[in-house]
Structure formats: C-alpha cells, structure tokens
Amino acid sequence: MVPLVATDPGGLVATAFADFGGYLTTNAPALLAIGLIAFGVPFVFRWAKRLVS
Length: 53
Description:
By secondary structure, the protein is mainly alpha-helical. It contains two helices and no strands. It is elongated, with a radius of gyration of 22 Å. Keywords: Membrane, Transmembrane, Transmembrane helix.
C-alpha cells in the first residue's frame, strides 16, 4: 500500500507552470506555423474556391 503524502496544491501548479513563459517563447515559431496551417490553409482554400466559381 502506498502511503499518502501531504502535498501543496499551489506548489504542484507552480512547479508545473514554472517555465511556461520560456516554453512558449522558445516554441513560438512552431506554434505559429501550426496555427497558420490549421486555420490559414482552409481559409485560403475557401477564398480561392469562391474566387474561381
């Protein structure tokens, strides 16, 4: 049986998000590229489809 350990919920959250800003800053180009592909490509495709028809 695993003994229960008293944990601090605030400490868990602080540890999980300790370098979240640095993570976002480091990965910003990749995140922007994913956003452009996910949202920009379908938008351009629909626009070009309306332009042709």
